[in-house]
Design goal:
Elements: E1 2-5, E2 11-13, H1 14-36, E3 40-50, E4 57-63, H2 68-80, E5 87-91, E6 94-97, H3 107-110, E7 116-121, E8 127-140, E9 146-152, E10 168-169, E11 180-181, E12 202-203
Antiparallel strand pairs: 1-2, 1-9, 3-4, 3-8, 4-9, 5-6, 5-7, 7-8, 10-11, 10-12
Amino acid sequence: MKGKCKICANEYTQSGMSRHLKSCLNKNYEKIIEKEQSQKSLYYHIYIKGTYRSDYWLQLQVKADAKLSDLDSFLRDIWLECCNHLSEFEINEQRFTSSGFNMSNKIKDVLREKSKFSYTYDFGSYTKLDLNIVNVFKAGEREGKINVLARNKQPEIKCSHCDNPAEFICPQCKYTAGGWYCSDCLDKHEKNDCMMNEFEFLPVVNSPRVGVCAYSG
């Protein structure tokens, strides 16, 4: 699954984006720093993908003094939040939960270059993510502690009943082969033995939580 680099606007495959960003960050930040004469800060380049839905991925630039709670909030806002569920990072077998105080730890105090860790949102209908520190680098100060470097393009998901792109998903029928619908095929859901109606369908969105709980993007 391809995605677009937010720095140069070129598209790369999921496997090639991390390699590209290492080069693109070095090349472009040298110019930015010279031009703006801004003071350098330490940043983490973090690659994130759905554990079970790896077509959905993000590459982020996260300031070293950002807290785990900042990353938690960012992931909720861009990908996950639906009903204010609990969440948790697992780093080196240590758990950092949204219900406790240890999410106040700073990124630089718990993560190192090449660190791999995981994140779970919602412990009922959960969405799990895999995270990897690709690089740690210095760059000019940016607005915001967390910025998107690259993101996957919307996966092409077809309607289960025709060749049109799917626009809606039935949260119950998604467990069968017929859960995806375009607007022209919504009436075909009536033939299914399902308690849901079309007003309870969820939109197809660019997130590993698509079709889960009440997530609508």
